[in-house]
Each structure stands twice: as structure tokens, then as C-alpha cells.
Amino acid sequence: MIPLVLGITIVLFAVIQAAPGGPEGALLQSGRFIDPSVIEAYRHRLGVDRPVPVQYVRWLGSALRGDLGISFSTTRPVTEMILERLPATVELMGVSFALAAVLAFFVGILSALRQYSVFDHLGTGLSFLGIAMPVFWFALIVQLVFAVELGWLPVSGTETVGATSLGDRLLHLVLPAVVLSLRYVAGWSRYLRSSLLGSLRAPYVRTARAKGLDEVTVVGVHALRNALIPVVSIMALDLSGLFSGAVITETVFAWPGVGRLFVQAMFARDYPLLMGILLLGSVMVVLFNLVADLVYGILDPRIRYE
Amino acid sequence: MSAAWRAGCAALLAAAAFGCVSGADDAGGGADGRKILRVAYEREIDVLNPFTSQNLADIQFSMAEGLVTTDEHNRYVPVLARVIPTERNGLIVRNADGSVDMTWPLHENVRWHDGAPFTSADVCFTWRFIVSTGSQTYNRDQYLGIRGCSAPDPHTVVFHWDGMYAYYDGLFEAILPEHVLGGMSTEEIVNDTPFNRGPAFVGTGPFRFAEWKAGEYIRVVRNDDYWRGSAYPAIDEIVWAFVPDANTRLNAMRAHQYHFARILPTQVAELEGVGGYDIHLISSNTFLHFDLNVNTERGRRLFGSRDVRAALFHAIDRRAIADLLMQGTVRVAETPIHPGNPYHYDAVPTFDFDPELARQMLDAAGWTVGPDGVRVRDGRRFAFTLLNRAGAADRIAVAQVIQAQLKDVGVEVRFETLESAAFTQRWRSGRWEAEVNAWFLPADPSLTGLYACDGPNNMTGFCDLALDAVMKASDRTAAFEDRKPLLDRVQAMLAAEAWSLPIYYNVVPEVVSRRIGGYRGSGTNFGSFWNLWEWTLDTPEGARTPDVRRALDATEVPDASGTGATPGAPR
User: Fold this and answer.
1) To the nearest 10°, the Cα dihedral for B16, B17, B21, B26?
2) Which of B228, B202, B283, B193 is nearest to B522 (CA)?
3) Cβ neighbours of A171 in B, within 8 Å
4) How far is A222 from chain B (nearest CA, A)?
5) DSSP class of residue B78?
């Protein structure tokens, strides 16, 4: 796992550095006149005028000591910046995943049990719509309907500053969580339906029914457990985003999470911050893949790791 | 189901059922009745230090004050200075050796937010920081003419300049506290997180720092010890919420979630008819321009001739761009200096839309129409690449119009669109052929940095030594009556050379709640929050009579001669 993460950091650093432009671009963003000597001094202070391998070795040396460096744009420790954004991301992603899991299991299982029924066709249609629909567009539509027209929910942010309450915070969570969960519901329910259909046709399910087991036990214990294995793989990969955030949803809803921080870092060419966030995301992908492997063993006792 | 979860669901349902979503105009202030001004701001700023921040410093200026600011008429007005020095009021003295002493009298009853007195030593400390290597101050070079700073008493500061510098009254837009930062090196100040981030940040302004919630908002609260008197400010708190997405800001204003936001010119029509707001079209000191580059051999071959450049400019219908594309929200520009600035000169050569004339001029220059409709000369096609900044929707739309109109006269324009940082890098390298870009000018009208041969922001390769001499003379002339003719010549020469085509003066639509009083929108780099100390926020019932729509026009300069009572008016 460690060589894998190390390899990922080399690729990430190279890709980030290969992108045209540098952090000095931030100096010219406001459109004001800039003293050119300030630009050169800025590049030198940040160390981006040194060869890329030298920059990488310096970064890696710090990272191995647990120091992800100092953000170019805010002059603050990267670790501190990521940690202060994590709660918002975990809150949004956690609620979205929970919501998506409930809905996906409901739609997926019912669609498989009632194959080719009206509900199945409806579920299939809505799933494709959910996968195909651009997130930013769907986000703007729900803002228009539920915030602007109906006035039920706030457009953006996590709270009404100065009038915060639990209800206020929950209301702010509704739209981004629904928008974010849509894509997961669509994807997971399709996988679950397909996988469960396969299990329901398997000989061991026929045997279970022949034994006289009730349908709930047949589906819930025998069929579903086996059908979950491919779904768990997909969910584990998606769950790694629990810590790396949702770039578009967080930006559209002005949600102060890691995803939005990533966008800011990208436009500012804030290399240490970009590396910090991407490293976090990479480690999470690797970790959640490990978790998925472990869950396989629980779901299917035949799977064992030597 | 846990008790906490049940309580959460109940609260959510109750809130939804009773429609208690807090909107700025619905709920107004805070839960305790405090007057909270809610601003939907376009971005999260980087640091609070106004000199090291790379963003426009609207938020910082609610807490930090400088010697001067600019008002809604593009005039410098004193803030911590009691009066802006001029030769007329005797505070500028020319010495025999050509050097100049400028004396700034300061207000005497000013205190920093931590109670320490503000003195002339703070001003000299700020100057030392700015000019030190590594201060990261974007316009550091403009301070380098100051050879020394002395503080004869706590409320008087004297700058010793190496000569007259016209922009002297636009400097020191903020002052740093020596008692907080004085013991640090420049590097330490630049990286000082407590000051950059807020807990140790002190200014002399009407609001004090309260909270910075990363990614979400900055909150400032009333400075009860403000030097203008206990009646100011009239607002208890300001929440600067970071709402980067333009569509989200628009929707948030439709939902009355904020009192103030800036939107895009193309969004103005979508907010018309939404109650509770006025839309102010602030004529910004930003002008959009079409640049041609002669840095490369290919650029010189295409654009080296003045007549060819003029022909291209005659082929572009700027009126249509302003009236149709920008929906009449902007004004066609003929010179970089805004009409609201008293240094604007309108008798310059213009490039009226005349495609037939453009064709004739190109024919005369030897560019004849080839078999595919594109002009050729010496076997080479008249085709070039126009550099675009990704995401700048208005500029790309203008570029598309230019592309279509130049095609109509036989010139092929290709696009190369680069993400912002990559665009900046390419632009600075000078390796491009044409661009649509915009400059944000301060209230001072100097154009030297943009068009002088050695101008730090002249990336086009154009150079005219005669023009250089006039521009640099204007920078060394402070008196309005002497500087105006020089800058008139500069504008006339620029237009005659046809180096760059000004397209329009940008507008920034500001959506302002009718509950706000005291708003006087400004198009300079100080922004519309320059007078926050006198803003008010009425209760919804007490909101002033709504205007259908007010468009502030910066051309309404009450005193262009500089002889009026307002200190710091143009000289």
C-alpha cells in the first residue's frame, strides 16, 4: 500500500506541475497593475523557481514528517486548512450517502423483485435521468423551485449567521444532500437490481425456496447477501469521496467543504494545498478498497485472504 | 430512532411547515434584533493584510482604513488624513534639488481596535513594510519614489519624494499597526497567521474582526470606539458570505437571502421585478479592450501597419456589442480613461463601424481577398489566433462577435482558450497574437504602466518614444490644469496609433436591498464599501420608498476642477 501511495504522489506532483501557469497568476487575477519585481519575488519565496524534482523531494520530506506544507495563497498550514473543511464535507457526504443508500436499496430491491413492472420501468428511467443529468443544472433547478419559488429552503450556505438553530442547519443541508445523493441512488440501485436479479435465478435460491423458507428470508438472507458483493465494491469507491468532497455541489451551494477548497487551490495553483487534498483522496480510495475487500469476507464466508 | 434524530426531524419539519427560512429581508437581523448586514461576496479572500492580499480589499476596508479612499465620483477623499496635501494648500513643497516634501496631517482621536493610539509612526512603519523586498505589495513600485518618511509629531507625517509623483494621493489605502507588527521581519509579517487570519488583526475602521469561518463567511462587528463618533457605524454586524457561483448569488438574491450582491451584467434582466432591491449599474474603472501583439515576427507582419490595425478596428461594431450583446448595460469606450474621470478626453480619433471602409483600407494595404474568402498578401493568409481566458463569459462572447465581424471583411480569427493561470502565463510571455482583456484602473488616470515602452504591463510590444515622453511627464505633474493637457495628448496619440481598441467601460451590477441607506456605489478598486461607516439598515417596515431602478452614472462629477470644498478632489 505504501509503494502505491508513493507512486500516486509522484504522478500527482508531475501532473500538477505540468499544468500551464503558476501560482503567480493569482497576483494578476484582480486586474490591477502589478510591479513585475513583486511577481519574481513571489515565485522565489514560494520556491516554484526551483527544478520540479527538487520541489518534489522537499515536499515528500515534509509530508513524511506529517507536514503537508504551507498554502501559497493563505500562508497557513495545509493540514490545518483541510482539517477545518473536513467536518462540513463529512456532514454533507455522510447524509447524502445515508440517503442514497436507503433509496438505492429500496429502488434496487423492489425493481429486481418486480422486474418489468411499472415501478421497475420508472426506476430505470429515473436512474438514467439521474446519471445523465448534470449536477450543476439539477442543483440550480432545485434552488429555483424550493428556495426561490416556494421559499421553503435556503439557497446556499450551512447556516443563517446570527439566527442559527438545529432546524436552520438541517434546512441548509436538504438541497445539497438531495442533489448529491441523486447520482449515487441512480448508480447503486442499477447495480443492486442487476446483481440481485442474478442471485434470484441462482440454484441456491431455488433450493432455499424448496426448503420452504419464507420469501423475506430467501431474498433478504440468501439472495441479497450474495448480490451485495459487486455493489459493495462500487459503494466503497464512492465512499472514499466522503473525505475529498463534492467539487460541483459544494461550489454551487457555497458549502465550505474540501471539494470547494480543491477548486480554489486549483485556480490559484496552490501546489501544496492541491497535493494535500489529492493525497487525502488517494489514501481514502486505497483504504476504502481495503475495507471493501474485508467486507467481501463478511458477506461471503468462502472469500478468505491469505 | 434516537432522541437526537427525532428532534432533528421534528425541527426540520416544523421549520419547513412554518416557512421559517431566514431571508435577509424576511428575518432581517439576528435572533437578538441586531442589525446584521448580509453580503453575498464573490470569493473567499486569501488574507486580511490589505497589502499582501491578492484580492480587491473590500472586506478588509470595513476594518482597516488608510490615508485616503475614493468616493462615488472617482475622487480621492481623506480618511485618516485630515486633508490631502496639495501645492495650493501649502502641504506640498518643492525643494531646490527637485525633491518634494509632502505633509499629511492626521486625525488626532483615532485608536486601533485594541485601544492603542494611531500615530504617524504607524504610517512610516507601513511605508517601510511596503518598500521592503518581499512585501508582496502589488504596487510596490509606486512607493519607491519616497526616499524617506518622518514623523515630526504623532499626528503629522512627512514623505520625502525624489520628485513630484502624480499618484501620491492614491497610495496608503490602508495603514498597518506598528505596535502589533513592528517587531517582525517582512517575511514574518507576510506569513503572520494571527494577523492574516483575524485574531490579531486590528484596524481603525468602523468594524472589528469577529470570526472567519473557513469557506463560508467573515463576520465583522461594530467598533464601539470608532473615531467618527458614537453614532457610527449604524449597523451592528456584517456577514460577508462567500458565494462564488454567479447563478447561486442570483438565486440567493431572488430568495432574499442577502442584502447585497454583485451579479453579472447579463443577469440584470432576470432580477428586474424582484421586490425589495434596487439594481445599481456601477460604471467601473474597468475597460474591455481588443489588443494586437507585435512582439513576434508574425505579429509585426500582420499588425505592423497602422492602417491595417485601423481597418480591423473599423470592422468591429462596438455599438452592437454594447447594446445587443451586453443588453445596453455598458458604454462604448474610445479611450482607456473613463468619462467619469475629469482627465477623460473625448476629442480622440474614433473607429466607427464601417466594414466597407475596412475592406478598402485592407485592399490598399495589399491584403486582397483570396479564393477561400480570406485575404492574402505575399502568399500568406490574414489569419491570427485570439487568446481567451476560460470562464470569462463576457469576454469570450465579445471575442466571438469580433471573430464574426472580421470574417466579414476577409480576416480569419481562430480561438485559443486557456484556463486562467495558463492564460496569465501566456500573456506575460508576450507569445500571443491578439486578445480581449480588461484592466481595472485606479482613480488616478496614469496610463504609463500599460502603454509605455518599458511599461510593466505592456505585453503587446508597441513602443512610441514620443508618447512615452508625454506619459512620463504626466506622471511627474500633479496640478490638474498642467496634467490634463498632457493626458489629453496621451489619449489622442494612443487612439491615433490604433494600438489597442477600447471596446466598452464595464459595469458591475450591484443588487442593493432597499433597507440599506447611505450606499454610494463606486467603480474604483476601493469598491462600493468605501463609506460603510455611514450605511444604515432599516427594519423591513421602515424601508425607504423603492426606486424602480437607479443607474448611478459616474459622469455626474460635481466638481471636476478640483476647486470645491472636498479635499482631495482632482487637482
Assistant:
1) 170
2) B283
3) 12, 15-16, 21
4) 27
5) E
Q: What is the pLDDT along chain B (571 residues), one digit of tens a residue?
A: 444 444 444 444 444 444 444 455 544 556 567 899 999 998 888 889 998 887 767 899 999 999 999 998 888 999 999 999 999 999 999 999 999 999 999 999 999 999 999 999 999 999 999 999 888 787 888 899 999 999 999 999 999 999 999 989 989 999 999 999 999 999 899 889 899 988 899 999 999 999 999 889 999 999 999 999 999 999 999 999 999 889 999 999 999 999 999 998 888 888 878 888 999 998 888 899 999 999 989 999 999 999 999 999 999 999 999 999 988 888 999 999 988 888 999 999 999 999 999 999 999 999 999 999 999 999 999 999 999 988 788 889 999 999 999 999 999 999 998 877 788 778 888 889 999 998 888 788 889 988 999 887 888 999 999 999 999 999 999 888 999 999 999 999 999 999 999 999 988 899 999 999 999 998 887 889 999 999 999 876 545 443 433 333 333 333 333 322 222 222 2
| Chain A touched by B103 (CB under 8 Å) | no
Q: Does B191 touch chain A (CB under 8 A)?
A: yes
Q: Does A230 touch chain B (CB under 8 A)?
A: no
Judging contacts by C-beta atoms under 8 Å, the chain B residues touching residue A70 are 191
pTM: 0.81
Q: Distance between CA atoms of B502 and B553, rounded to whole angstroms?
A: 19
Beta carbons of B247 and A76 less than 8 Å apart:
no
Which residue from B47, B424, B450 is facing A25, i.e. has the nearest CB?
Answer: B424
List beta partners, residue B559.
Answer: none
Nearest-CA distance A195 → chain B (Å): 30
| Among the partner residues B140, B248, B251, nearest to A38 by beta-carbon distance | B140
**Preferred mutation among B13, B216, B219, B425 to probe A, highest tally of A CBs within 10 A:** B216
Surface-to-core class of residue A146, CB atoms within 10 Å of its CB (0-12 exposed, 13-18 middle, 19+ buried)? buried
Nearest CA-CA distance, residue A18 and chain B, Å: 11
**Chain B residues with CB-CB distance to A30 below 8 A:** 54-56, 138, 440, 525
In angstroms, the CA B248 to CA B56 distance is: 21
B254: cell is 431572488
Please work out, in degrees rounded to the nearest 5, the angle formed at the alpha carbon of residue B426 by the alpha carbons of B425 and B429.
90
Instruction: Output the nine-digit C-alpha cell for B151.
Output: 514623523
Give the residue carrying C-alpha cell 441512488: A185
Q: Do B423 and A21 touch (CB under 8 A)?
A: yes
Query: What's the CATH superfamily of B58-188?
Result: Dipeptide-binding Protein; Domain 1 (3.90.76.10)
If contacts are CB pairs under 8 Å, which of residues 270-289 in chain A contact chain B? none
Under 8 Å CB pairs connecting chains A and B tally to 223
CB B538 within 8 A of CB B515: yes
Q: Which amino acid is at A238?
A: D
Burial class for B548, CB neighbours closer than 10 Å (0-12, 13-18, 19+): exposed
Secondary structure of B206-252 in the HEC alphabet? CEEEEEEECCCEEEEEECCCCCCCCCCCCCCEEEEEECCCHHHHHHH
Q: Following DSSP, what letter does each residue of A144-212 receive, concatenated?
A: IIIIIIS--S-SSSS--TTS--HHHHHHHHHHHHHHHHHHHHHHHHHHHHHHHHHHHTSHHHHHHHHTT
- In what helix (H) or strand (E) does residue B352 lie, and over which residues does it extend? none
Question: Cell digits for A117?
Answer: 413492472
B230 touches chain A (CB under 8 A): no
- What's the DSSP call for residue B197? H
